[in-house]
Amino acid sequence: MISLKGWISIPFLKKSDFKGSYCGMRYRLSKISEEQKDQIQVQIWKGPKSFDQTEEKMETEQFPFSAQGIEEAVVWLNEKYKEKKEIWDQVTYR
């Protein structure tokens, strides 16, 4: 299971994106502003390529820009991992 406790915070996301992976599922959390409201945008894609190099279709979801939003994002990431586990298990690193 993905746990970002101690790895990511709102001050971190104000300055930088957070990228990670879990068993073939790659993900990125970033701050976006829409209609003068900050949000956390989470994107997932099938590895092994990085965010900048992937040609895979990304799935995207948004959450409130808060500590609670980070927790909600982690719950969503874990749900997506379980939902598409067979896809992530096909990723090979050569």
Short summary of the structure?
With 94 residues, this protein is α+β, with helices and mostly antiparallel strands. The chain has helices spanning 10-15, 67-83, 85-88; strands at residues 18-22, 25-34, 37-46, 59-64.
Note the gap between the termini.
24 Å
Structural class: alpha+beta
Q: What Rg, in angstroms, do the CA atoms define?
A: 13 Å
**Secondary structure: number of strands:** 4
Main beta sheet: 4 strands, antiparallel
**Number of helix segments?**
3
* Biggest sheet, spatial arrangement of strands: 1-2-3-4
Helix content: 25-40%
Helix/strand layout:
Layout: H1 10-15, E1 18-22, E2 25-34, E3 37-46, E4 59-64, H2 67-83, H3 85-88
Antiparallel strand pairs: 1-2, 2-3, 3-4
Description:
With 94 residues, this protein is of the alpha+beta class. It is 29% helix and 33% strand. It is built from three helices and four strands, in the order H-E-E-E-E-H-H. Strands 1-2-3-4 form a four-stranded antiparallel β-sheet. A hairpin with a 2-residue loop joins strand 1 and strand 2. The longest helix is centred in the last third of the chain and has 17 residues. It is globular. The two termini are 24 Å apart. The model has no long low-confidence stretch (mean pLDDT 92).
Observed structural traits:
94 residues, alpha+beta, four-stranded antiparallel β-sheet, 4 strands
